[in-house]
Amino acid sequence: xxxxxxxxxxxxxxxxxxxxxxxxxxxxxxxxxxxxxxxxxxxxxxxxxxxxxxxxxxxxxxxxxxxxxxxxxxxxxxxxxxxxxxxxxxxxxxxxxxxxxxxxxxxxxxxxxxxxxxxxxxxxxxxxxxxxxxxxxxxxxxxxxxxxxxxxxxxxxxxxxxxxxxxxxxxxxxxxxxxxxxxxxxxxxxxxxxxxxxxxxxxxxxxxxxxxxxxxxxxxxxxxxxxxxxxxxxxxxxxxxxxxxxxxxxxxxxxxxxxxxxxxxxxxxxxxxxxxxxxxxxxxxxxxxxxxxxxxxxxx
Length: 300
Hints:
Blueprint: E1 8-12, H1 27-39, E2 44-46, H2 59-73, E3 78-82, H3 88-101, E4 105-109, H4 118-130, E5 136-140, H5 142-145, H6 151-160, E6 164-169, H7 174-184, E7 189-192, H8 198-203, E8 208-211, H9 218-229, H10 233-249, H11 257-265, H12 282-298
Parallel strand pairs: 1-2, 1-8, 2-3, 3-4, 4-5, 5-6, 6-7
Helix pairs in contact: 1-2, 2-3, 3-4, 4-6, 9-10, 10-12, 11-12
């Protein structure tokens, strides 16, 4: 299996739902979103992550979203399939399915709700990684999972599991990205998991972003990321700061409500999120619409 290069902007893809009884997956809009991402030159797509509302997908839907994304993308960009769970056994099933479906890599989130110890986290990731030949991206997001994967534990995981090759770092702490780069160097690719921190994280060694905003502005986020990676710091700073109000608007309420609302404003999808999530309240929608409008006017 050839070695993949992980660098640039990867979109944490939403899962669109129809505004109909049962809120089934809106397959036509999913296809349109995948096509738009490919046309914008995105490095890769990450379906069935947090932004894809994976906790509310049935097992059948999860598998179908992964399979359809891979088929529709048809090699135009990488697919890093969301394959995490708070059950090690279920995570193993998900990574095995992703490999059969033809994903390029898998993203495995830190187990949520259970509150495992660092030893439990170590054993979880080593066990999951042992059940696939695919590259594994570890997703650390303590605001969602409650527990934080310590850098020392991640280093142990990397030593035990050669196919753990990257980390989506979403602690909201630039110093954490710096620590991982210092400890692991080229052994581990670090991705920003927070759009507003992409530029500062690249400055201390990150190689890109797994982005929410790029659902709505894929070419623009990809450009800002590439400028930073290419060392064009003044241009990168301008591009990053121009996008900052949009990044902030995407989290004016809990993700993915705002980004789905933004897509709906632009005519892509219904904006429907599954319970217990709810659509953003009107004041939040106004913030989202204003941020998109301001960015569009500044880009003219």
